[in-house]
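Hi R.,

Here's the chain you asked about this morning:
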Amino acid sequence: FAEEGIEVDTSASGGGSALGLLPPPARRPDQSTPLTGMRRVIAQRLLESKTTIPHFYLNIEIDTEALMAMREQVNAASLANDGPKYTVNDFIMRATVLATDAVPQVNASFQGDAILEHGEIHLSVAVAIKEGLVTPVIRSAQTKSIKELASELKDLASRAKDKKLTPDEMQGGTITISNLGAFGIGH
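And here is the predicted structure, written out as tokens:
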């Protein structure tokens, strides 16, 4: 938040960069890995299993006390400098981008005969509207600060509710998040 003139005590966590408040500078090129015969069979079996066999999912609860304390401090500093108020979802978006950047293999898609590891992180965020759910895309999310992510999502969500998103703004995501915690949904 230093670029906005906001001071945040980051001594316990190593600074703004360590907190992921600032975007990482580097980008990666897309990388396509052709599937070997064995990998192709594994991919086909996984696709078959996902579409024909019932699944169950495991969930864990995490202690967000440190996150909530940091959010309170960041919001106090931001609001004191006429800045925005940050939501938990803003921090989840930034954490998702940082995790995806740290483990680029999750930012990949199956292309039939190859796995395409995307160099850019195009973050899709589920937004509830009256007619259902849409997933607008924040392009090149790895280049954006938490402030930029929050601002862009706010704009996209507002335009989604007004039915003013273009089809291009809802396509091309490489990783998606949906946060239903505000509605009391545990899993």
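One quick note: The CA atoms of residues 178 and 184 lie 13 Å apart.

Cheers,
M.
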